[in-house]
Amino acid sequence: MPLLENCWSHCLGELERRLGADQFRIWIKPLVAETADDGLNLIVPNQIFLQFIRDRYLGLIEEAAASFGHEPAPAIALKVGSAPKKAAPPASAHAQIAPTQPSSAPAAAPAPLMPNIVSSGANHETTRLNPNFTFESLVTGKANQLARAAAQQVAEHPGVSYNPLFVYGGVGLGKTHLIQAIGNYVHQRNPKAKIRYIHAEKYVADVVRAYQHKAFDEFKRYYHSLDLLLIDDIQFFVGKDKTQEEFFYLFNTLVESHKQIVLTSDRIPREIDGLQERLTSRFSWGLTVAIEPPELEMRVAILLNKAERENFKLDSTVAFFIAKHIRSNVRELEGALKRVLAYARFTNQPITLEAAKEALKDILASGNRQISVENIQKTVADFYKIKIADMHSKKRTRDIARPRQVAMALTKELTQMSLPAIGDAFGGRDHTTVLYACQTIEGFRQSDAEIAHQYGVLLQMLRS
Ligand SMILES: Nc1ncnc2c1ncn2[C@@H]1O[C@H](COP(=O)(O)OP(=O)(O)OP(=O)(O)O)[C@@H](O)[C@H]1O
Predict the structure, then answer these.
(1) Region Domain II: what ranges (predicted)?
(2) Which residue's alpha carbon is at the smallest distance from atom 13 of ligand 1?
(3) Which domain holds residue 193?
(4) Residue 414 within any structural domain of the chain
(5) Span from the CA of 176 to the centroid of ligand 1 (angstroms)
(6) Is residue 268 within 6 Å of ligand 1 at its C-beta?
(7) What value does the mean pLDDT take over residues 409-433?
(8) What are the tens digits of pLDDT across the range 53-68?
(9) Are residues 251 and 302 in the same domain?
(10) What is the complex's ipTM, to 2 decimals?
């Protein structure tokens, strides 16, 4: 099939478009394609990589190859091997020669940005954006792609597209990173823009101080003159009526004059009990987007990316190992990687799987505790405010049946229990009922943002 020489280049284009830059770079670029009699052989660096590509990406690769338009559709075979040296084969022998290890590409250095100092008047401390929190250093995957796309849009057209942009998600999932990336981007494009990043508690403190010093004019002059206001963890406004009132005026002024506001919280606005209705309704004027806990391939991509940035070559087997065991959030993932790197430096050892196991043994010991079905039932019942007994009952109203299905799906995902055993634990149900529940919830996770988010939150709660 001589025409297949161009097939891999075609596939690469398709896959990059469908997977996004980060997943493409980590998983697809390292593949080396060779033309075979009936299609392509894709050479992967090791067995784990092979298994992963087969499980997660082979279907997509086959689709991309089929869309090349060759009849019959090219067959795709995966093989472990080392890539031929670049100079050796003539270019036509390989549709694409890519680096063999994902970590071998030099790290794209984060764009060094000047810390953005906002001139703020005597009573308002200056705020620094973390120059490392950029779009370039933010790994994108299913868990955050919508939030990232919205943030990028806002950064390119502040005050125009979505105002406010409201980002919500659990602890350590990258909310601060994302909104500071907006700040850094706007600053880079327009160094004169008045940008303030602030934690909600600091804003509360500013209001209190203005109140105490009868300095509201100055407070207003400063905040109302901003071009971009980024406030983290807005749930801290709860119970602070004066703050909420001031923020209401500020919000109206900024939005009316097309100045951008970006807010974060650990939940969606209407779930923040104690936030005034006029604020929650205004927050929905713009766009509300979630950041979910990262899935396995995104966790691996984050690890490889962070290691690259520290100029460490992290073997993909080790990255997999860490990502499989540290599942709660990105901050913990970073912490685990730091431990492994420090251990390697300290003992002067290369980062092998053994070294990683040794470096993380404390964390792994605490994380390996079994998650019980009782624990899952209790957590889910609390979350949906139903009785634990409803997990076993025969009630079939949706407000009971749906949480019960969620709990069954979580039990399937988080324990080693068989379907019949899960059925028994949920009031003696048949294993087909459990299977149906798992499939239903999986379907909702693809199609219903709210259930997908709730499931993600529950996973995080149960694993932490
Ligand atoms: N997608 C990602 N790619 C790369 N790094 C990430 C990503 N998500 C999070 N991080 C890193 O994880 C760490 C925690 O992220 P961050 O502080 O933004 O989380 P957060 O959601 O604001 O947490 P909290 O709710 O505790 O304030 C940061 O160092 C951040 O750079």
Answers:
(1) 88-127
(2) 331
(3) 145-291
(4) yes
(5) 6
(6) no
(7) 89
(8) 887 788 889 888 888 8
(9) no
(10) 0.98
